[in-house]
Every structure is written in C-alpha cells, then in structure tokens.
Amino acid sequence: MDKKPFVTKEQLEIITKKYPTPFYLYDEKGIRENAERLKKAFAWNSGYREYFAVKATPNPYLLQILKEEGCGADCSSATELMMADAVGFSGHDIMFSSNETPPEEFALAERLGAVINLDDITHIECLEKTLGYIPETISCRYNPGGVFKISNEIMDNPGDAKYGMTTDQIVEAFRILKAKGARHFGIHAFLASNTVTNEYYPMLARILFELAVRLHQETGAHVAFINLSGGVGIPYRPDQEPNDIMAIGEGVRKVYEEVLVPAGMGDVSLCTEMGRFMTGPYGCLVTRAIHEKHTYKEYIGVDSCAVNLMRPAMYGAYHHITVAGKETAVCDHRYDIVGSLCENNDKFAIDRMLPEIEMGDLLVIHDTGAHGFSMGYNYNGKLKSAELLLKSDGTVQKIRRAETPQDYFATLDECPMMEKYRKHSEV
Question: How does pLDDT run across 366-402, given as a tens digit for each residue?
C-alpha cells in the first residue's frame, strides 16, 4: 500500500501562508465517503447506527459533518456530552459510555436523554440514587475475561482490563435492572484495539449475540440493541492492508443470521462506536523542519512535538511521514524526527528512512485524524496547535485556533503575578 497525503505541497504552501505550522488538517471529503461506506456495509440491519467516538476527535465541526452523515455521538465525559448537545445531538442520538463515572455526569446524560451504558453492576445503585429511578432504556458493558486472540498478530487481554462486567454479573445486572423498571436493554463490549483484520467484528459479534440469547432466555429481558463498539483499526504502516468494511459487515450479518435469527431475535439493532476507523486516515499533522543535528545520529527537529501528537512518545506508535513535494524521491537518508520537549521520547520517528530533508521542508505526519489532537497536553508550557478543515470544495476553514499564552495562563486567575501574561502574549 502506497501512503499518499490527501493534500499536495502546492496546497500546503498556500495554507501555510495564512496558518503557521504546526497544525492539524482534516479531509472532509474523505470523512464523508468513509461514513457512507460504513452505512452501506451494515445497511442489511434496519436499526443500524454508528455512534462516533467523540474522544477520538472532539471538534464540533467534525461532529457536525458526521451528524449530517447520520451518525450519533458516543460520549464518555460531561464535556463530551456538552459538545454533542451543542452540535444538536439529542436523546438516543447520544450513547454515554463511561467508567468510574461521577454521579453528576449520569445526571447530565439523563437530562440530555442519552442511552446510558453502565460499566459495572455497582453502578446500578449509583445511577438509581442519582436519578431516583432507572431509565427504561439501559445498556451494560460486558467483559468476557481471559485473553482474546484473533490471529497470530493480534491479541488483547480483557481479563486485565478495568472495563465491563463478568458473565455472571451482567446476567444479575439485567435481572436487577428489569425489576427496577428497565424495558429495553443493550449490550456493549470492546475487546481489542486497532485491529487490522476483517475477523474481529464477526468474532466479537458471535460472543455478544450468544450472550444476548442467554440473557433473553434467563432474564426475559428485551435486548433491543447490541453495540459492537470500536476496535476496527487502520493501516498505520504502508505494508498493512486496510480493513474491508464491506467484508466486515457481511461477516457480522452471517453471524447474526446464525445466532440471533433462530432465537427469534431478528429485530435486534446493531450499533458501532468507531473513532479511529471513521476519521483516523483523514487527518494529518503538518509540521516544518526547523533544525538539523549531526551527533551520534542524524536528527531533524520540527516545530511540533509530543504535545501535538502523543502516540509515538507514549507507546512507540508508528506514523508514516511524507516530506511534502518529495513523495517520489528516494528514501536514502536515515533520521530521527524529533520535537522540542525536555523528554528523550519526544520522537515522531526513529531511524526512519526518508528523502533528504532541508530546512523549511514541510512534513506530513499521516493518520492523525483520531487520537491525535485529542490526546494533546501542555508539558513544558507548549501550546496546542490549530485544527483546519480541508473542505470538499477545496477551501480551508479554521475549526479551532491555536492556543496562546493567555489560554495557558487563564486558569491562574487569582495570581496577580501572571496578570500581564493573562492579557498579553508578548514577552
């Protein structure tokens, strides 16, 4: 697979005349086309709905695009609920999946009419105490435990995860919730992250569908929907084959007809809550080479850092890098691409073979449209970058301005020493 940016050097040169690097750039056309593919893959299920995982890319402009494409919003915090509400999501357009949830966040979710997805059986008591009742529609998160293995390459360990209920707990939870007035139930599980295989969703579906049949038979509960969550990944490396979402949808359909339909449960709606798959490939971090260093290794210093993109520093995640305008040049130089944090893991790439990089070159860091900007932070007093949208008509819209020193100092509102910097950014 040949990774090519969705933006050209010529476009970037125009954009950078108005918006200084670093910045995130998102591809509206790509996001919309991908949402349409997903809907088509699950069109066989009349109640299907994608609930975009807001945590992946929490920007109201992007949420609006996905809302227009028929998606709901999956939220995990009060501020994500507020953003979804502001964009116009309401009622069962919102799924609230949280853990160790503050009671006031349950209350906000209920005020907005969201479907609440309980992470633990003990949260039933917390929810009832907070609201004074149990909602008629409720969902529970399941954790089968053990080790979940898809292939030789992909393995995850649900038994070591803090999320979800055991089998016995979810059966008991359904009984309790039903006795307390719940009428429509959902089941949710997330067993593996960023899987690049068409096998994951059908395997997860079988586990959840069989659980749904058992829950219906043992508790009499009406299972209205099953949430397959996220976990469908993207090919970060150029040698990886992307998932075939049509094949994934067809695989889930076969399991649905094998398990649910014979049990008389052919009316169960399916949900997904993808983040990475929905927007990951349709965002990039654009940064500029500003320094070069020749010591024990060859370093290229750029004007962004792990504050802007945490994944490589946090756990060595691979992100492909293109030197704009040198897409066809020979990759005959070995570099570490590094930022300016006082941390030695502040590296976007280590020993990466790239074309010769000259000062001022623009570097496009691929596949940052999910879990990129959203994981940013302010270590070393570094400031988060702007977010831009490359619209379907080719124009560019600023959808989040870059942070300023005033933003950084704004919470020191009771510190008179910082007064001048809360109002002015100049040194």
Answer: 999 999 999 999 999 999 999 999 999 999 999 999 9
Fold of domain 283-421 = Lyase, Ornithine Decarboxylase; Chain A, domain 1 (2.40.37)
Residue ranges, comma separated, of all CATH 3.20.20.10 domains in the chain are 26-280
Assess whether 415 carries a catalytic annotation.
no
Taking only the tens place, the pLDDT of each residue in 287-320 is 999 999 999 999 999 999 999 999 999 999 999 9
Task: Write the DSSP assignment of 133-193 as a string of letters.
Answer: S--SEEEEEB---S-EE-SSS-EE-GGG-S-SB-HHHHHHHHHHHHHTT--EEEEE----S
Catalytic choice (71, 126, 331, 342): 342
Q: What is the DSSP letter of 341?
A: S
| DSSP codes joined into one string, 253-318 | HHHHHHHTGGGT-TT-EEEE--SHHHHGGGEEEEEEEEEEEESSSEEEEES--TTT--HHHHH---
CATH level 3 topology of 26-280: TIM Barrel (3.20.20)
Residue with structure tokens 């040194």? 427
Distance (Å, whole) CA 419 – CA 239: 52
Number of other residues whose CB lies within 10 A of the CB of residue 182 = 22
Residue 104: which of 119, 126, 135 has the closest Cα? Answer: 126
* pTM: predicted TM-score of the whole model, two decimal places: 0.95
Do 294 and 331 touch, CB atoms closer than 8 A?
Answer: no
| Three-class SS state of 218 | helix
For residues 359 and 292, the answer to whether their CB atoms sit within 8 Å is: yes
Q: By C-alpha distance, which of 321, 198, 189, 205 is closest to 256? A: 205
Report, in this order, helix, strand and coil percent for the chain, each rounded to 5.
35, 25, 40
